[in-house]
């Protein structure tokens, strides 16, 4: 739960510092998106391999290695002398995050019985949203008074606490697949293919980007064929072919994150450049969404222990669709109360979706597959987040181009803002169908 606060705090706090980072390094709008995307890309690429390694070598061990890597990368980010250096160190942060994300849910699933998992996932996701909530507020304060580099420095004592607690209080290592081989060839193909898909999508408007995207899709198809024939695959494709709840729950998660992650990025730029609010005010407005998420996630998780998760998640996805439609209608003259209300609707929808969906995924697999299922959950989240940023990047590239976003160019940004959110709303509507199509994840006689 400490790590569930730690990593989203980093992700959300940096959104209100984007203007300060851009000003210091004179970044273009497109380069600025890679401050977030580089971290997500690295985390997404390595999540599945590290989830498999955790099942074989031990989940606690991989978790601790991840915390050390993330901490070192955070220090380097604080010292970054250039745009390239910052993006490189953010990539290193993502590498460490993959070890953390690939094991945290698996560790929880390993130590709590099935009838309590929804409650535990709800609490953990609530802590995640508290991290997201604290990020913009604390980040805005730190950026205004101590500069954006302080965002990375403040993480170090938290990381030290997490490492100490995990080392001294977490008993056991949970390596249910110990002795099985690790599929290095499949892992390399997976990493290269996913990188090609994500980078290609981010540069979709250019011919090399489109070629890279197609090559990545072909690589993913080859990976799926290879894994289905491998004795000890890094990702068991049978989970997707023969486990309907697992497959459609993951698809729903992918769509949901693809449609929602760029909300904070785009809305923060809207508040900073269109509404011309300070970083502190921007952070306070953004926190309205995550406060609602934190408040209702434990309730949604607990409900999923007794009510079929498919129903709760689908209602949450539908409410999220409504929230995205409302945000797409914002204009330069929209009142702050309207902005806060729209973000609160989004937060409520996402709270109802996330923890029941995670409960559905983890309840659909055997104990020895907890690590790979946990990493698959994280992969859907991170790939969705990267695709979300990619979609936002495409719209910014079309309407703003490679120029810096300024108060003077805010009109062009708004031309990108509204169709981007309309696109996200349409995607989420498809996600409702995927969520309903998964079927039940527990027998009808199971009353929990």
Task: Kindly summarize this structure in a few lines.
This protein has two domains: 2-169 and 234-437, Growth Hormone, Chain: A, CATH 1.20.1250.20; 183-233. The protein is 80% helix and 0% strand.
How would you describe this protein?
This protein is mainly α and 448 residues long. It has 2 domains: 2-169 and 234-437, MFS general substrate transporter like domains (Growth Hormone, Chain: A), CATH 1.20.1250; 183-233. 80% of the residues lie in helices and 0% in strands. Helix 9 (184-202) packs parallel to helix 17 (370-399). The radius of gyration is 20 Å and the shape is globular. The two termini are 24 Å apart.
Q: CATH first level of the largest domain: which class?
A: Mainly Alpha
Uncertain runs? 443-448
CATH topology of the largest domain: Growth Hormone, Chain: A
> Percent range for helical residues?
over 70%
Strand content: under 5%
Structural class: mainly alpha
CATH architecture heading of the largest domain: Up-down Bundle
- Annotation field: number of helices: 18
Sequence-ordered SSE layout with sheet pairings:
Blueprint: H1 2-13, H2 18-25, H3 29-57, H4 59-78, H5 83-111, H6 114-146, H7 150-153, H8 155-169, H9 184-202, H10 207-229, H11 238-242, H12 244-260, H13 262-274, H14 279-303, H15 309-328, H16 336-363, H17 370-399, H18 410-437
Name a few traits of the molecule.
448 residues, mainly alpha, Growth Hormone, Chain: A, 2 domains, 80% helix, globular
